[in-house]
TrEMBL record:
Xref: HAMAP family: Phosphofructokinase_III
Name of the protein in question: ATP-dependent 6-phosphofructokinase
Annotated residues for binding of ATP: 11, 74-75, 111-114
Chief location of this protein within or outside the cell: cytoplasm
InterPro entries given in the database record: ATP_PFK, ATP_PFK_prok-type, Phosphofructokinase_CS, Phosphofructokinase_dom, Phosphofructokinase_III, PKF_sf
Naturally occurring in which organism (per UniProt): Drancourtella massiliensis
Cofactor dependency: Mg(2+)
Keywords: ATP-binding, Cytoplasm, Glycolysis, Kinase, Magnesium, Metal-binding, Nucleotide-binding, Transferase
Length: 360
């Protein structure tokens, strides 16, 4: 008898179901005597022992379905060791559920925070395999996470649609793309959607540079300027502040602006004689059906995870590198962020065709 626990944790994204389907199909194809425990709402399900027994049928017909059939929740890593009001030590509770159900392993689908907790469970002696999900593509150790390409498709579609109305009205448009810490989605959607200015958390911007760029475009007879800004984009002078001061400033700004795009719009309007409008696609970027690329990637990663389970290989994240699936030790992944390198070729190539990153 093989007993597998499965859970999805953190913000959802496209292709979570496709990945779980890949794991389950790979397992059921080889082993019939198997029980899959689908923990509800991420680590919460493991902590409070709430789960559904999943059959082969539960994993059928879900390849194209968005969201996660198991539900998810955010369980911050820094609270994992904190005993809450309910008196529960979360790590001990998760270990208890695992041993009580006599599980052979846990398959955990998640992003950065999820991987930190998964590694903690590994250190506590549980057999863990993880799959890299997140629209942010910021997991170290894999070239690509599933969800990313689908989010890029959606953000690009938004930018495409804004182009026509921006031209008609001769406006500056700011499209705010998801990504608080990293700018992968903004960078790719910005290039794919033909944005004129791309602002990333990794490349602090100078408002004067942005204003000059917009004025130059107007002087050259260009009717519009499209700015793709990541949620976490930051001005140069703020990036130079000590951490504590920056946090205070960000708290103040939170009370004034709903998000970064609103602050930017106000600043640009004060410097340029242009109407500025904002579009925030928000969680649509994580919603709906996965794109074909993500379906293939998630299926491959799921199948590779199934192969590893059948070989009793645990303690790894299943990754994709140079087109091939591979395994990366969890201890190497946990706590590392894959950010956009400002010196990467993709950045210099974008600069070559005239895209501004607002820095020079
Ligand atoms: O981590 C993925 C992500 O989509 C980020 O890009 C975004 O900033 C955040 O989640 C939004 O989180 P929530 O779903 O909690 O609003």
């Amino acid at each position: 008898m093989l007993r597998i626990g499965m859970l999805t944790s953190g913000g959802d994204c496209q292709a979570l179901n496709a990945a779980m389907r890949g794991v389950a199909k790979g397992i059921f194809a080889k082993v019939k005597d198997v029980e899959i425990y689908g923990f509800r709402d991420g680590y919460k399900g493991l902590i409070y022992s709430t789960f559904d027994m999943m059959t082969e049928k539960d994993f059928s017909g879900i390849l194209t379905r968005g969201g996660t059939i198991l539900g998810t929740s955010r369980q911050p890593f820094k609270q994992m060791r904190v005993i809450g009001e309910d008196g529960v030590d979360k790590v001990e509770a998760m270990k208890h559920t695992y041993h009580k159900l006599n599980l052979d392993c846990l398959v955990i689908l998640g992003g950065n925070g999820t991987h930190k907790t998964a590694n903690l469970l590994r250190e506590e002696g549980l057999n863990v395999i993880t799959l890299p999900k997140t629209i942010d593509n910021d997991l170290w150790g894999t070239d690509m996470t599933f969800g990313f390409q689908s989010a890029v498709d959606i953000a690009t579609d938004t930018i495409d649609r804004i182009h026509t109305t921006a031209t008609s009205h001769s406006r500056v448009f700011i499209i705010e793309v998801m990504g608080h810490k990293v700018g992968w989605v903004t960078l790719h959607a910005g290039i794919a959607g033909g944005a004129d200015i791309i602002l990333l958390p990794e490349i602090p911007y100078d408002l004067n540079v942005i204003a000059e760029y917009i004025k130059k475009r107007s002087a050259a007879g260009k009717r519009f300027t499209i700015i793709a800004v990541a949620e976490g984009a930051i001005a140069k002078e703020e990036a130079e502040l000590p951490k504590k001061k920056l946090k205070e400033l960000q708290e103040k700004k939170k009370a004034k602006y709903p998000s970064v795009a609103y602050e930017l719009a106000e600043k640009i309007e004060s410097k340029c004689d242009k109407e500025v409008r904002i579009t925030v696609p928000g969680h649509t970027q994580r919603g709906g059906s996965p794109c074909p690329y993500d379906r293939v990637l998630a299926t491959r990663l799921g199948a590779a995870a199934a192969e590893m389970i059948l070989c009793h290989e645990y303690g790894y994240m299943v990754a994709i590198k140079e087109g091939e699936t591979c395994k990366v030790p969890l201890k190497e992944v946990a706590g590392k962020l894959k950010t956009v390198d400002p010196k990467a070729k993709i950045i210099s190539e974008a600069r070559t065709i005239g895209i501004s990153f607002g820095d020079k």
